[in-house]
Amino acid sequence: MISKEAVINNQVGLHARPATFFIQRANEFKSSVWIEKEDRRVNAKSLLGVLSLGIVKGTTVNIVADGVDEKEAINTLSELIASDFSE
Questions:
Q1: What is the mean pLDDT of residues 29-53?
Q2: pTM over 0.90
């Protein structure tokens, strides 16, 4: 299991369209992937879970992955966040 912190810098935070991109990308991996905000952890492959965190611009989150492709999952999702969710 590995994890990495990331700061959400896009204008709308992790809501609606950016959340959909994030979830689609997380679902490409066999590993279990979670996103944490403060003391809450949700499945990063669940739209409802991710939206329930209410992540706004400037929020620091922790991405956690566990499985065969965990490093690739963490790197890909971190890059997506760093790119402000541009495809």
A1: 97
A2: yes
